[in-house]
Design a protein that fits this description.
It is an enzyme of class 3 (hydrolase). The chain is α/β, with parallel strands linked by helices. The protein has 17 helices and 6 strands.
């Protein structure tokens, strides 16, 4: 049996959007969600924006609304909390339509984790856990650019925000008077201040096994990765359709100088060769010709055994803290933070807090963790 929900109010023109935005600016909080298509493009193509007020649901049509200025003002209002669930790609959609991201954001997936409900909880499971509501998800991958939308699509889109504010209020009640409420807000603020897309000139550092390459090979890798990212954005094409991810490291290792050599590279597709083959070869040559003084610094090798031993201590300490606070390890102190701590020790010979660890994690986790590690080191003497 379908779940009952209010009939949504369609917002199909700029005048209507402006009218309703004036109303939403008077509220304490609104629920937001987006539907989009991202099958053949780098950027998401907005298909629908849902706004829930607790009593009404509005469906905003990006295919017909022209002026998103009033909605941008709602997103930028500090007095209206914008409640979303797992909002990563939603932020991209808002940025495409309005040129901005929301302030005063609360992500219920993060809040649920801090409330002890689990890591990366789906919206379905959030509502089932908090409200005993079983939400269907049968329209998730449908065509949100078709018009008219099907009855199932409209129902699905409406349900995505009908209960969100109620869940938000319950989560606030569970976190009330706990430091975790401030931690959630810090994480949401950090999410809004971080770039939507990576720096093209830095992407090469995240390629697996890049540490195995020599400086000249790294120069090739940097050049290829930067071109791939910029071309994907410029042509609005998925990255893997420019150059497959699995080809990046082999291109840098082998530095091919002809199409035949390039064609033998792992994961290299005929379509890529036809469209980008000569460009890739030219990029390789450009990178090989740069002065040695401009080569990237070699990346550090995997941590030595002594660091891995400390890594086990860090893991055990964080797991104990995770159980104490009832917060998932992945959220409390992600693996990249542990690695940053170990790199700091490897480079300096002592434990100190890396610049990348900030806010409440620096105060509540990194500082006491470093004290524990120093005490362990003293005990071992």
């Amino acid at each position: 049996m379908p779940i009952e929900h209010p009939d949504p109010i369609w917002v199909l023109d700029s005048e209507s959007l402006n009218h309703y935005c004036q109303q939403w600016l008077e509220l304490d909080a609104i629920a937001l969600d987006t539907e989009f298509i991202r099958t053949d493009t780098f950027y998401p193509i907005p298909g629908l924006i849902q706004v829930g007020t607790g009593e009404e649901v509005f469906l905003l049509d990006p295919l017909s609304v022209q002026d998103w200025g009033p909605f941008a003002r709602v997103l930028q209002s500090k007095s209206v909390v914008k409640v979303l669930h797992a909002c990563g790609e939603d932020l991209e959609v808002f940025n495409i339509l309005t040129g901005c991201r929301p302030v005063a954001l609360l992500d219920t997936q993060l809040a649920a984790a801090y409330a002890g409900l689990g890591h990366s909880l789906s919206y379905q499971n959030l509502l089932k856990t908090l409200l005993e509501v079983d939400l269907p998800k049968d329209a998730t991958r449908s065509d949100w650019l078709q018009r008219p939308l099907t009855e199932a699509q409209v129902s699905y889109a409406t349900l995505d925000v009908v209960h969100l504010l109620e869940a938000y209020q319950l989560l606030l009640k569970q976190l009330q008077d706990k430091p975790q409420l401030q931690w959630v807000q810090e994480d949401c603020d950090a999410l809004l201040s971080s770039p939507l897309f990576p720096d093209p000139s830095e992407i090469w550092k995240d390629v697996k096994r890049a540490w195995q390459l020599r400086p000249q090979q790294l120069a090739v890798l940097r050049k290829i990765c930067e071109y791939r990212e910029l071309e994907a954005r410029k042509s609005n094409t998925p990255r893997n359709r420019v150059i497959p991810k699995g080809s990046l490291w082999p291109i840098a290792r082998d530095m091919p100088d002809n199409i035949r050599s390039l064609s033998s590279i792992q994961d290299m597709k005929p379509k890529t060769l036809r469209k980008y083959g000569e460009i890739i070869l030219d990029l390789v040559e450009q990178a090989k010709d740069i002065p040695e003084t401009e080569y990237p610094d070699q990346l550090p090798a995997p941590l030595p055994k002594a660091a891995r031993d400390y890594g086990k201590l860090i893991k055990a300490w964080v797991q104990e803290k995770s159980a104490e606070l009832n917060i998932p390890v992945e959220l409390l102190f992600p693996g990249k933070m542990s690695n940053a701590l170990l790199r700091q020790w490897q480079n300096n010979g002592q434990f100190s807090i890396p610049e990348s660890i900030k806010g409440w994690r620096q105060r509540e986790i990194a500082k006491p963790l470093i004290l524990a590690l120093k005490e362990h080191k003293t005990d071992q003497r």
